[in-house]
């Protein structure tokens, strides 16, 4: 492993050399999707150029090669995640499908009056499926709040658990606040009470490896496009016995054990939940992204991201009318803020004229926005390939916003 060098890593991402209206691209929308290194792009091109075929059913060479590559991708990702032996890894389209799959499959475990514990910092993807599940089953949703610094109110969260609590779903890292929740502590608390835990890890893996055995969640999900891999691919990890007992989320080819005119039986997980032709290239590209990330000095990368966040936050808060959301000492490199003089969409539009890409809106977290007392925010989110020049360009662009609206 080479010492952390952001300049060398930056060169691995070809899109970062692009210009926007003659100005260098400053990409600070990593919370929405991360850019892709050349290795991932080349892996996709290599698959389509040399191995492209459908998997699991062909006896010809291309099909065997594609099947081997797909199956190897699953095993490699499982290894990198330190997935417990009792768990299985299912390829899905992303975190959203993972949550929907789990909520659909767990419906049979709930009775009217059972309880599901959520938090107000959840992305809609880890909020609405449980809301729909509660409507279907008569279960009751209970919500833990957020403290002034953006941290989860753990005392309140613990107090929500009772004899009817069946599921606790919570985010690993908030996509708005950057808050890193103590997920190992939370899953242990749930497990001691016989409560299933579901962790949304979409914002955690982009900032370093996650050891799922240490996390201890029953279910853990993330999206490939947020972890420097392709879009349209994601992962749901869950206990093999629980997955095998869940009804299929979709039916069709490749998840079938036997079909007769009188009925059908289904394969075990993971194939049970991968009906039809899967995203073969996406799985291969995601595995290549994990191989790329394995070579990174993550201690150096995290320190670099933290330094960028501190630099941007410190200078931004010198502006009048700026309110920053999420100020916990140890947080992911996500900076959400509201400028009193301008709508976030106006902020984002002006920054775009300077080549700066940020995210504006409610960030699929409307319950959290309501709790914070704002309809939307602007959000700059950093990755290890960003640098201080990116931060300075962002700050100059924000001063342009300030001058315009002053």
Features:
single chain, 406 residues, alpha/beta, Aspartate Aminotransferase, domain 1, 2 domains, seven-stranded mixed beta sheet, four-stranded antiparallel beta sheet, 14 helices, 17 strands, globular
Could you explain the architecture of this structure?
It is a single chain. With 406 residues, the chain is of the alpha/beta class. The chain has two domains: 134 residues, Aspartate Aminotransferase, domain 1 (Alpha-Beta Complex); 253 residues, 3-Layer(aba) Sandwich (Aspartate Aminotransferase, domain 2), CATH 3.40.640.10. It is 38% helix and 18% strand. The protein is built from 14 helices and 17 strands. The chain has a seven-stranded mixed β-sheet with strand order 4-10-9-8-7-5-6, sandwiched between helices. Helix 2 packs antiparallel against helix 10 and helix 11 packs parallel to helix 14.
Q: Stretches where pLDDT falls below 50 for ≥5 residues?
A: none
Count of domains: 2
What would the average pLDDT be, to the nearest integer? 97
Portion in beta strands: 15-25%
CATH H-level homologous superfamily name of the largest domain: Type I PLP-dependent aspartate aminotransferase-like (Major domain)
Largest sheet, strands/sense/barrel: 7 strands, mixed
Number of strands: 17
CATH topology of the largest domain: Aspartate Aminotransferase, domain 2
Distance between the termini: 49 Å
Name the overall outline. Answer: globular
Tally of alpha and pi helices: 14
CATH architecture of the largest domain: 3-Layer(aba) Sandwich
Computed CA radius of gyration, to the nearest angstrom = 22 Å
Helix content: 25-40%
What would CATH call the class of the largest domain?
Alpha Beta
Give the strand order of the largest sheet, numbering strands 1, 2, ... along the chain.
Answer: 4-10-9-8-7-5-6
- Would you tell me the structural class of the helices and strands? alpha/beta
